[in-house]
Amino acid sequence: MAAIAQARAVTSSDLWDEDTARRYDDASAGMFTPEVLDPAVDFLARLAGGGPALEFAIGTGRVAVPLAARGVPVAGIELSQPMVDQLRRKASAAEIPVVVGDMATTTVPGEFSLVYLVFNTIGNLRTQDEQVECFRNAARHLAPGGRFVIELWVPGIRRFPPGQAAVPFDVSDRHLGFDTLDMVTQQGTSHHYTHLADGSVRYGASNFRYIWPAECDLMARLAGLVPEQRVADWHGAPFTSESESHVSVWRKPLAAGA
Ligand SMILES: C[S@@+](CC[C@H](N)C(=O)[O-])C[C@H]1O[C@@H](n2cnc3c(N)ncnc32)[C@H](O)[C@@H]1O
């Protein structure tokens, strides 16, 4: 594919390095299980409706590879070359073309019936401006009538007792994970302490900006997209005040008079 990369020199996103990329599929093994992946791929294949799809932050191809195997032509944008290198072990550039760049600003040739951004990754852009630009970039790549899909957690603010700055999300023998969130700036960090086989402990952290579903809707509106669907998960469970995540779909309007 003749790629046009327009990546800015600077992005607020953490850059995923070679070590992280090499470990990604094992570390996220739970996200590769058929129970997790199949409903997501079903949902996305249905929305693509036979047209081409573009994945923002395609990573190692967790979703793109099985989606392409369903016959959906898939392309990607990804900031980290090491993540793309891992994807290349599963699919060639002819099968799944990828442009290395920032999903807020990078463009690829073509018009897509579906653009999708999963696994909470909109949060990797850590400024509101960049998140707005990301929605605009999705809209830019959509054909009229095409859809933008986001999978995102609902910020777990309600789990914070007053005065406490951290909330654990995984406490097990092998791994301690907790988030710190700043209620003023909407900045957050996920901290991971992992016990290794040699007895040592590895620390890793990832930074993000959390956003509510309502802020997503406003960003979509700024990008000229209209809301079509919000469900709690890929199975289509209703989104309620208790939901901890959402799958949201916005649509690019058909041209006037079409
Ligand atoms: C949690 S992984 C998700 C990968 C894949 N979508 C999946 O579901 O397995 C987050 C990915 O987002 C990429 N990423 C982070 N910021 C980005 C940006 N500004 N533009 C493009 N990719 C970005 C990271 O390099 C990483 O590959």
UniProtKB/TrEMBL annotation:
Residue span, Methyltransferase domain: 54-146
Pfam families for this protein: Methyltransf_25 (PF13649)
Gene3D superfamilies, A to Z: Vaccinia Virus protein VP39
Protein name as it appears in the record: Methyltransferase domain-containing protein
Protein origin, superkingdom: Bacteria
One biological process term in Gene Ontology: methylation
The entry's keywords: Methyltransferase, Transferase
Keyword Ligase carried by entry: no
GO terms of molecular function: methyltransferase activity
